[in-house]
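pasting for the record
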Amino acid sequence: MTRLLSLLTMCVFMAAFAGTPAPAHAKGVPEGFTKLTKELSPAVVNISTAQKVEVSDFVPLYPEGSPLEGFNDFFGGNNGSGRVSKSLGSGFVIDPDGFIVTNNHVIEDADVIEVIFPNGDVYDAELLGRDPATDLALLKIDDEDPFPSVNFGDSDTIEVGEWVMAIGNPFGYGGSVSAGIVSARNRSLEMGAYDDFIQTDVAINQGNSGGPLFNMDGEVIGVNTAIISPTGGSVGISFSIPSDLAGSVVAQLKEYGETRRATIGIRVQEIDRKLAKSLKLDEPKGAIVTRVTEGKPGDEAGMKVGDVILNVGGVDVDNNRELFRIIADTKVGKPVDVTVLRKKKRRVLSVTPDRLKEKVTKDNLKGEERNPDMADLDIMGISIEGLTDATRRTHKIKPEVEGVRVLLVNSRSPAAGKLREGDIIEQVNFEDISTPKAFEDAINSARDNGQTVTFMVNRNGNYIFYSFDSA
């Protein structure tokens, strides 16, 4: 169940000039990775998952009595009971008691999770908690003896150009080691509000997901999560969740079996240079409020659309993504001072955060039950799908976007030549819709009343209105 992305390519080139002294704080090129590999590899594990997929109305490929009859089970027979879908990933032990970190997408929807150590030992793992928002999960295995383990380091101290090393299970080849340098920090893949990836040129491939990224002190400073590649294989652009974020999420999963984030009920956008200049800010920092939800903490504290949030609880806000992380880590129910810029004057608001409603809790580790309202459907010759978590991840649809996604437009549909695959229909007749069922109900209502239907379409962030005959 890997989530390795395919987009672009990039080459990295380093050169060192003889006689040029290195800065005092920089670490030199390592002589090798043998010592680190021997020390760290025992704590890095392969994760094998299995999911039973139900198969209905199975037609045997080979007749009863055929020498090949046994292959019917492999292709989904076995008396119609279903087949097993398997997947591989990586993980690492962070506690001798058997706590293991991996990616959520590695174990999501798994019915069975096995952990395999480099020495061949195999354990059935229990899923303690998972967090789709950051793509992290925590597993637990048990044994009388302590397990080899590694520790989280401080990802905030890692610098661009530093050497790093990954150990994992690419394509099922366990214990594989690769190394490279940090290419960039604070990268966003537009997967969610908590994006803050470390970019490296370390060779990461399918099966590496969930494995550790080490610094040269042998500390975990990242969890390998995604790559960008036109081929599906490594081209030197890989992304890791920083350990500072992973550590805080894992600590909550370990203590509560779920994450417990705070929210103040606002939406914001980033401040660019032009906006910063108009606000008379020295540099483009902070986040400007674009919506305040009525009755939520921000509203009750007097926050207004147009306020620029500069500081939360004594921590300066660099951008909107950092704001969400700062707020998420504040104490629920405990007042916090928020400094805002309003009409070019600074003021301090006392805001008491609520607890953010999470999609996955300790009572629902397998995720939300399939909502029948989200089922794909075809109406007016338009095939649509709901914006599930999987759809949002696959097509990089931002969390704040609500509506249905266009899959296909029949050539005889009144929408042919107007709607396109990938369009998000957010409104029907100027009413918000968020599920395929709501979309269908709105069209049927228009038909019953002899009305035309008007769609508000989000196409790559640009809005277009189309009107059609509903008959």
